[in-house]
Design goal:
The protein has about 1050 residues and is an alpha+beta fold. It has 31 helices and 31 strands. An eight-stranded mixed beta sheet has the order 7-6-10-4-3-13-16-15. Strands 18-19-20-22-21 form a five-stranded mixed beta sheet, covered by helices on one side. Strands 29-26-25-31 form a four-stranded mixed beta sheet. It starts with about 60 loop residues before the first helix and ends with a helix. The structure holds zinc ion.
Length: about 1050
Amino acid sequence: MEPFPSDQIQLPRNMIENSMFEEEPDVVDLAKEPCLHPLEPDEVEYEPRSSRLLVRGLGEHEMDDDEEDYESSAKLLGMSFMNRNSGLRNNMSVYRQNPNGSCSVPSTRTMVVCTVVLVISVSLIMAIYLLPKCTFTKEGCHKKNHTMELIYPLATNGKLFPWAKIRLPPDVVPLHYDLVLQPNLTTLKFSGSVKIVVNIVEVTWKIILHSSGLNITKVTITSAGGHQAKTVEFLEYPLHDQIAVMAPEALLVGQNYTVNIEYSSNLSDTYYGFYKISYKDENSKQRWFAATQFEPLAARSAFPCFDEPAFKATFLIKIKRDEKLSTLSNMPKELDKRLRQLSTASIVLHVQKKATTPVTNGIVQDEFFVSLKMSTYLVAFVVADLKNISREADGSLVSVYAIPQHLNQVGYALNTAVKLLEFYQKYFLINYPLEKLDLVAIPDFQSGAMENWGLITFRETTLLFDSNTSSARDKKLITAVIAHELAHQWFGNLVTMEWWNDLWLNEGFATFMEYFAMEEVFPELHSDEDFLNLIFKAMRKDSLNSSHPVSSAVQSSEQIEEMFDALSYIKGASLLLMLKHYLGKDVFQAGIEMYLHNHNYGSARSDDLWDSMNEITNGTLDVKKLMKTWILHKGFPLVTVVRKGKIISVQQEKFLYCVDPENWTSDASFLWHIPLTYITSSCNLTHCTNAYLLDQKSAVIELPEEVEWIKFNVHMNGYYIVHYAEDWKTLIALLKKNHTALSPKDRANLINNIFNLAGLGKESLEKAFELIDYLNKESSTAPLTQALYQLSLIYSLLEKNGEQQLAARVMHRIEQLLGDKIDKQCWTDEGTMSERELRSTLLAFACTHDIRNCRTTATEMFEKWMKSNGTMSLPSDVMKAIFTAGAKSSDGWEFLLKMYSSSVSEAEKSKMIEALASTDDVRKLIWLMQNSLEEEEIRAQELSHIIATVSQSLPGYLLAWDFVKENWDKLTRKFHLGSYTIQNIVSWSTSQFATKAHLLEVKSFFESKSEESSQLRCVKEAIDTIQLNIQWMERNLAKLQELL
Ligand SMILES: [Zn+2]
């Protein structure tokens, strides 16, 4: 899946601490938590895994086996028992964190009471749990062969539900699904039946599978040899989205059975499952569109299924539809395939008649070919009035679909998809295995796109290219998203992560391939610079305590949703980039081919990837050992470099962007295996890049000769920050004297690193400002964009926190550095892609902040456009700047809203919505957010974008937060708790806060909500960020006053 890409500009990362599931031990400071350690794990003797103690209702807690056991006994004693290794989890009501993030020391009385309670508790556990070897069941305590009996949660009908875990049991596996669906786009309901052929791995009386919100009317089981389907009992446990099909007799090992389930449901009004979309056709008539979005956990709300990625099966899908609509699914239709094989018109006609199955009046049934073996989250179907264009590519038919009025905008996507498909087939040495690949623009879609096998669904802005209104940046966005989703056809679809903890294997790879393929196939787009900017932003999130390892254990739906974040996508991709440069491109490519070849049509874990790479390196390099230091630990290293003559000393430590390093919940002494790279003044070309593997705390590199300067992390291909200690002076002088001695990416890297170090207090802000003094000579997009980003962060923080005068001085400094460049921009779409993008960035910035007469020019153009009633064509790259200036006046804003409602170009509409959301009129801002949430003129898919824009402006940032607070329940219902959209909304709406009052407010708001809300990673990240902002202000305000 591609998260909505324009949100990537500030990817939120967020966190609930996954410590209870992480492999590494939790670090609990016992000195600070004297009452929290009554039990060492080895003080409690565990029963064997098979004999477990569960308490009715405990199923709602998401724990692994050991924790469930542990937690249950604790619950019985009225205790909160959460931390596997340290015994007890911090009791938040007693040990609430102070606003500054440190832990308060409990009173003596609390400690005494705690100690007494815990001593009694320990004794009770020892007495009840261990000595008599008995357990609590509904009958009470009784002995039964010294093992414990499970007590299960209650099903909806009051009976015991025979399974208590979130994960499905491994005793039954699905082989094949026959799915028949009949959506009704008038009643907005659907009915369905699914026949699942299952194989029994261990003898059992029950089949547990997923179902969510389905009204099941009948369930039957047929044995392999049997002809008679027997109606059987089924139980439902909605808390885990599970049903249990109860067999009338034991299901035998090795045998196949068919479970048939009939059900009905409503088309969803969220963005998940089988959902409905309302839109207006060419005649402004309201129409309905039905589409699916299953990843990660919503296939179960369209049909009962084994909804875990490793349960791969084949699917035969039949959809009954209105004869005027069309349907699409993963596979080609019977009809389409035969049409392609036949050439003469008469036979075509014959087949068409035969293949269209009339059901009732006006309803026909489409049958799709049996799919390849795949995961449930990749199943997809669309029922709508669609038009398409198609082209043959290497044996597969590639088609791009849209609603009829958008058909003229699909050409670019088709060309791009065909080129990328050909590239991937050559690179992976595995052909795309399906006969067709459809790309469909969905009129309302939460994320950027979804890689369903053979049927990729897109938001309209990420697929439709309109030559009049799509900018250089829009073109890049469409290319990137197609490249990402096509890469998934191999990484994710052909080889799937075994469980969501390794989501990075899908998303990190697809993101890495997205940029790699773009560089190879479309070098003119300079996409590597975009990747660089994303890495900078991912590192900012990864430097917070709320970060998590790329591969992190997850169970609950919120935890799974939260894996779709910057770390799985961008950090995952950055680590692959680093590995590719370390191994060399050929070895890396061979490793990837080996991995795909070894695991095709199956599932894989991170270790499988490293094992495949090790097959290629053949003992010369242990990729697994190296990469585990990056995948299983959060954060990244700071490498300090000290140069003395020919001797370079390097030292690594954790880069801690943390207000209170003592609370860092990971091992601070941990060592990464860092493939360092460097260039020097004696040769700074790519072929002169030197490498050194730093796998110790420190090391010494001896150069062949003394050099004038040395620059580490060449092109920022490594995931670490470098501090040059005394040598910053040398690099600052080099940039002033001859900045082109370093590549644009290296220059951007230096700017990024020094501002990060200034934030950390390792380097002075003065030096950071000194480094960017060379910028008036700079003409490359990457360093200019990075400098503008760093200065905008400072400006924004000052502006929102009562330091307007100082903010104005920062803006003055920006003008000194970049004013000439802004003045030089022309208001057209001329130049290279990179120049065009820089123009968009600089002019949008200048018009937003009303500098360099930007608004005068833009307003003139806007007025001409308004006079022409929107018929005059505007240059697409500067369209946003023009609209932003125009929307400052009330008339302009109203006119823009009118044009927004009638525009048929999504590219144009997205620029309009940003401009509308940048008005200073608070009533209009509230109206926009409300209107989008209520899905009136503005779709809900735009809401996170609107909130992002509103929360950046001075009149809007408090409004945005108030809006989030007031509508939290509606927001989490529409977008799902933990989803990428919710992560973005929380991150943006709190990002400008830098006071203790705001910190307290944000904390107490989320604490007042459900535990799931307050435990979200994005909430923890928001709190970390506010604390950092406070710290930044305290540390730098006085210096900034002196400096500017
Ligand atoms: Zn993806």
